[in-house]
Write a structure and sequence with these properties.
By secondary structure, this protein is of the alpha+beta class. It is built from 11 helices and 6 strands. Strands 1, 2, 3, 4, 5 and 6 form a 6-stranded mixed beta sheet that branches. Strand 2 and strand 3 (87-93) form a beta hairpin. Helix 7 (168-182) packs across helix 11 and helix 8 crosses helix 11 (237-258).
Length: 259
């Protein structure tokens, strides 16, 4: 009886540490204390990870087991799973075949077919794990505002909606990645003004050209270059919304710095 009792206590202790580590990441903690908890659970000192979240298909325990099995079958080991309300969230170490896309495909069947599933971007170490965990949860909260949704969706698909929900990580990404990429060290670079004018005109090449006093082909070329730089195309209504949100946030932040 003694060995069985010892094993039960070990499982209980591990479950408690997993619960504390997950809750800490969920609350935005990613410091050395959380890193120490992850090391106790077998995670390396330095790692890259991603998050996968959705509504369990039948039960939380069943979905948890299916995700763990999918990660193990791909040769992975680091996998921290917890729940937030009705949502099951897995934080998974990127290693070998355990990549976001491959793992998501392998584990997709563990989630409710009628509900959204979100795949987060990659993060590094405990701070990155916290960021991607909160990112997928906020993305799922933003789902009612977007239709249709891909399955799986990505956390970056709903950056503007996450920003409206108060997600600081989404705001930072919109400003640092999207808005800043429209800027240039050259003060005469017209990219930002062109994209902004095009969106404000309702997507009219001619109206934008008249406002900027250039040929419509020049506007078309600048928009194409902006899409290559930012990854977001202003001629697509959904992507134009992303750009508009990024420009608004960026200008507000720059205005605060200069005031």
């Amino acid at each position: 009886m003694a060995p069985a009792q010892h094993w039960s206590l070990t499982e209980t202790a591990q479950a408690r540490i997993e619960s504390v580590a997950f809750e800490a990441l969920l609350q935005g903690l990613g410091d050395g204390r959380v890193a120490a908890l992850l090391r106790i659970l077998g995670w390396p000192c330095q790692f890259k990870c991603f998050a996968l979240a959705g509504t369990p298909k039948s039960s939380y325990s069943g979905t948890r087991a299916a995700i763990l099995r999918a990660v193990h079958d791909l040769g992975g080991d680091g996998c921290l799973i917890g729940r937030c309300g009705s949502i099951c969230v897995a934080i998974i170490e990127i290693r070998s075949a355990v990549t976001p896309e491959v793992t998501c495909t392998a584990a997709l069947g563990a989630f409710d077919d009628a509900r959204p599933v979100c795949l987060g971007s990659a993060g590094a170490n405990a701070s990155g794990a916290s960021r991607v965990t909160r990112g997928v949860l906020n993305a799922l909260r933003a789902c009612p505002a977007v239709s249709p949704l891909p399955r799986p969706m990505r956390a970056d698909d709903v950056l503007p909606e996450r920003a409206l929900l108060g997600d600081d990580d989404a705001r930072d990404e919109l400003v640092a990645v999207v808005y800043r990429s429209l800027l240039s060290d050259n003060a005469d670079d017209p990219t930002l003004d062109t994209v902004s004018a095009f969106i404000q005109s309702g997507g009219s090449l001619d109206a934008t050209a008249r406002e900027l006093n250039v040929h419509p082909n020049t506007v078309r070329y600048r928009l194409k270059r902006a899409a290559e730089t930012t990854g977001w195309d202003a001629t697509n209504p959904r992507e134009a919304y992303v750009l508009q949100t990024a420009i608004t946030l960026g200008r507000v932040r720059d205005g605060r710095r200069s005031s």
